[in-house]
């Protein structure tokens, strides 16, 4: 990912800072600047998600793109945070241990590196809680 | 709005076409289509080209101009050419644009084509991940098979679909593909072949996944009122529909229901004025075996969770109650991304004309295509009827 | 009085046994373990690095006590394995705990004592009134060259200490340091692995500085080993700190709680910090703790610390894993997987 594109979302990636529409109360992570329900009637502000959630569905990635090939096999899941929003992330656990509804919590990990001389992209993954 | 008919079709061999370049593929398909239609290049009023990712695969953008140029349409006619992109639904969407252009009365003879040259790239996994949400799915480590695998995990957790029933989708498609001369794979396989193949993203294995392919397909459309000047067997487009949904799987209302498929399916049947029971064959988007299971349900042919039984009973084979993917689907015919939507049209029209040879569905009169982009963010559906 | 406001530690959950490393190099595992007093060491996950370890330790510290991150005026991270040669680990930590942008930061290097140097700096900034809280972290993913003696003990881990002077859980009564230019262990810029002077690293290195700094503190503060409940030393293996403790006159009861190296290995800049964290995990109000770090090159920082009532009343130690808890739910790796995790073998493009 380019320097600027990664940098722009550092608070979101590191600290799960999403957004919330103060009109309808919906929390968005990944963040949205426009509430899809309220649209122009919405008032969207930053919102800190807690990092606690549960696994909604999952898979084990065994063939990845070059960027992530050093990590395979890894568990990829859709996680529903306490706030109700869902995101896609890796769950750090043995592939045989992942289950539906598994409670998880966020941790800080390296997501990817832009090669051996490029920027290191940090972000959030999850572990069993 | 005028009625639109298909007057010509063409499709290249799908597969690893090492000796053929991106533009050569298109010329191959385009030539077949206009010869089939019996028209000259000069009569083409507009060109719509579906292509997902020439920029990443062959480092080329401005595809409309490139294709028009190499099709010889830029010299005298300066024919308008538009590149259409909706990930894996690029082809179906290009066809829809062509239909709309003719239906509106704006254009008369329009060519819709699709082309993708995937084998020139090294890491196609990463290129295809752009069909999903790059920032929040791809960058989290999601691959395209991974997203559909999560759909499969969710589906199999909530409904009764066995791993064997899922494999039957691929077995059937290879059987159909073995009778399709342009299919990438013409070998038949067994359930065992699928279950023994390498895991790609649990539970999906290699044989649950459509391959990387090169290929092109092209279709010529015209107003129905003049179609018989070109062909004895015009096929009318009785319905065209399109729907969108969230780009990321995690934002969907229901992970194993493609709401865009439900919406586009309902819209196209409403516009065509026919019912599901009137459809004789369907070409759906089996980028992964689970996608075909969901397609058959989301388009309304069978209730959610019950498609597995349809496959168990063999109803989706040629000769069954609902032949699905007589071309071999994406799995066996191949999936050059931008071309697939047009190949689906090519197959349905071939069938409705009675020209499908060994894979002919007897008495086929009404056919349907469903082309999906990404994990379900765009769905394009068309219904066709033999005149 | 300036002191520790809250603390946290992080150790990755993977381990490789000394006997497994010995097997690969044809050494006698019993002799190695017996000689070093180390049985297994921690190994980072494929997506962990010194920055992620530092962040987890810092977040653990902040989980134990209600602190407004805006009040953190400085972040210093000491390590020998900062992910960048230029671009500090400290800013990533600052961002990840919400302390940016109003703060100062820098990275430290002083072999294994970079973390304690960070503590001293924060003490100065807090004590002078320049900042309210300062975060000092010692963290490392230590590298030992394949087949070298250091490979048996080079481990991964770190600990974070928030320094301040309003209601600390442990007051730092004094700190004294002893420093000289001693080439016992070094790594040149651009080199993957450190080199060392063999037995030279012992007496002229570790023992000279640890004993000197310790005696300097006893002298200046008028204390003796018997005045302390606990003693934490830099622990490159189990033998050095045990011998230093005995020479100085500490008992096993005093230094064992802070000796984590037998089952974690040497976490370099994290070593004495993690040892201190382990001690604080079970310390009670009134306990007095002696700490002496050592960093090759060389230098030692000695500390005299008294635990206060705040350790039970102002923080909740159960809100983050203790060092003992970080040693549960472990996954053991063979040498090949260990090498993959440490980047000693790398997949080709």
Distance between the termini of chain A: 30 Å
Radius of gyration of chain A, Cα only, in angstroms? 16 Å
Name the helix and strand elements of chain B from N-terminus to C-terminus, one letter apiece.
Answer: EHEHHEHEHHHHEEEHEHEHHHHEE
Identify low-pLDDT runs of chain B: none
Q: Mind describing the biggest β-sheet of chain B?
A: 9 strands, mixed
Q: Largest chain interface and its two residue counts?
A: A-B, 33 and 36 residues
Estimate the global geometry of chain B from the Cα principal axes. Answer: globular
Under CATH at level 1, the class of the largest domain in chain B stands as Alpha Beta
The amount of beta strand of chain A, in percent, is 35-45%
How many beta strands in the DSSP annotation of chain A? 8
Radius of gyration of chain B: 19 Å
Largest β-sheet summary of chain A: 5 strands, antiparallel
Number of helices of chain A: 2
Write the element-wise H/E pattern of chain A from the N-terminal end onward.
HHEEEEEEEE
CATH architecture of the largest domain in chain B: 3-Layer(aba) Sandwich
Textual characterization of the structure:
- By secondary structure, chain A is mainly beta.
- Chain A has one domain (3-128).
- Chain A has 2 helices and 8 strands.
- Chain A has helices spanning 3-8, 10-15, and strands at 17-21, 27-28, 44-48, 52-61, 74-81, 86-91, 103-113, 120-128.
- Chain A has a 5-stranded antiparallel beta sheet. In chain A, strands 2-1-3 form a 3-stranded antiparallel beta sheet.
- The radius of gyration of chain B is 19 Å and the shape is globular.
- Chain B has 2 domains: 4-123 and 213-227, Peroxisomal Thiolase, Chain A, domain 1, CATH 3.40.47; 143-208 and 236-386, 3-Layer(aba) Sandwich (Peroxisomal Thiolase, Chain A, domain 1), CATH 3.40.47.
- Chain C is an alpha/beta fold and 349 residues long.
- Chain C has 2 domains: 3-169 and 314-341, 3-Layer(aba) Sandwich (Peroxisomal Thiolase, Chain A, domain 1), CATH 3.40.47; 170-310, Peroxisomal Thiolase, Chain A, domain 1, CATH 3.40.47.10.
- Helices cover 33% and strands 24% of the residues of chain C.
- Chain C has helices spanning 18-25, 29-36, 50-64, 89-96, 114-127, 202-221, 239-248, 252-255, 261-264, 271-282, 310-313, 335-341, and strands spanning 3-10, 14-17, 40-43, 72-78, 104-108, 133-141, 156-164, 170-182, 185-186, 195-196, 230-233, 288-292, 297-307, 331-332.
- In chain C, helix 3 packs parallel to helix 4 (89-96) and helix 6 packs parallel to helix 7.
- The mean pLDDT of chain C is 96.
- The chains are: A mainly beta (129), B alpha/beta (387), C alpha/beta (349).
